[in-house]
Amino acid sequence: MDRMTMSPTVAQWQLANDLRKLRRDRKLAEVARAIRVNASTVSRWETPGVEGVIPGPGSLERLLEYYGLEPEVIQRFLHMRKEARSSGWWQSSGIAEDYGTYIGLESAARRIRTYEPVLVPGLMQTEGYVRALFKGTMPSASPEVVNAGVEVRMNRQKARQANRSHLWAIVSEAAIRTTVGGPKLMAEQIRHLIQVSEQPNVTLQVLPFEAGAHAALEIGKFTLLTLDELTVLVTITDNTSLFWDDQAALDRHTEVFERLLADAWRPTQTIDFLDRTAKALEKE
């Protein structure tokens, strides 16, 4: 740990993971009795993400003293706890808690690997595409809700650019051929994809229909976020983000991503396909 500032989401994940490592092979009940709390409370302190709880400063200090940490180390943990309790830019936007957790991790990631079977990835969407998408998926949403959603999506893109993380996206051919917002708007979106893919820290590959029964066919959308000290897998179930950091899940989805790379068009082939598709849409 150091005294560098980290996002509240990352600080909470780091704090939870570090507390779990400090407990080692001690039983939850043993630790809980020693510091006079419930075992379930200790467990939630060690749980990253939306299911976790940040300990109070007094409780955290008692826990770390029980683990035998030196005062200066305890102060670093208390500093991390303070950062975990701070607010990120997205937390005033009225978004769902799981989405906020995702944004917090994404904005701090050094590398983002994502597979998108249905849509253009959010970090590559134009404002027009986002608005057309919201209009189709949330027809009763007020203009204020739509504007707020668009602002969050655009701010995510700015955060990635500021962080200079490497984005590696594999997008299905279906996502490119689904004409969101009409031919003209979709052509603009595809032209934007070409521009974004020319950035040195972006790799874009399209997974063609001809790939057939590929490795992610039954898995669906997923994202691997690599931060300085952890990697997190994000999957979507019933429109809710689920977060995984166990090694088995990370290994499985890393292998799936690598197999998708082998089946997808190379970046140059992808650009050729996008250019042809945009030209066809522009003629409609």
Provide structural commentary.
This protein is an alpha/beta fold and 284 residues long. The chain is built from twelve helices and six strands. The protein folds into two domains: 8-84, 434 Repressor (Amino-terminal Domain) (Orthogonal Bundle), CATH 1.10.260; 95-124 and 154-282, Endonuclease Chain A (Endonuclease, Chain A, 2-Layer Sandwich), CATH 3.30.870. It has helices at residues 8-23, 28-35, 39-45, 57-66, 71-84, 97-108, 127-137, 143-163, 173-177, 183-197, 247-263, 267-282, and strands spanning 111-116, 166-172, 202-207, 222-226, 231-237, 240-244. A hairpin with a 4-residue loop joins strand 4 and strand 5 (231-237).
Features:
54% helix, 434 Repressor (Amino-terminal Domain), 12 helices, alpha/beta, 284 residues, six-stranded mixed beta sheet
Tell me which CATH architecture of the largest domain applies here.
2-Layer Sandwich
The H-level CATH homologous superfamily of the largest domain, spelled out, is Endonuclease Chain A
The secondary-structure class comes to: alpha/beta
Count the DSSP helices. Answer: 12
Output the radius of gyration: 21 Å
| DSSP summary, beta strand count | 6
CATH class annotation of the largest domain: Alpha Beta
Biggest pleated-sheet summary? 6 strands, mixed
Q: Which regions are unreliable across 5 or more consecutive residues at pLDDT < 50?
A: none
Reading side by side through the largest sheet, how are the strands ordered? 3-2-1-4-5-6
Overall form: elongated
Number of domains: 2
Q: How do the SSEs run, as a string of H and E?
A: HHHHHHEHHEHHEEEEHH
| Content of β-strand | 5-15%
Helix content, binned percent: 40-55%
Overall residue-averaged pLDDT value: 90
Look up the CATH topology of the largest domain: Endonuclease, Chain A
The termini sit apart by: 56 Å
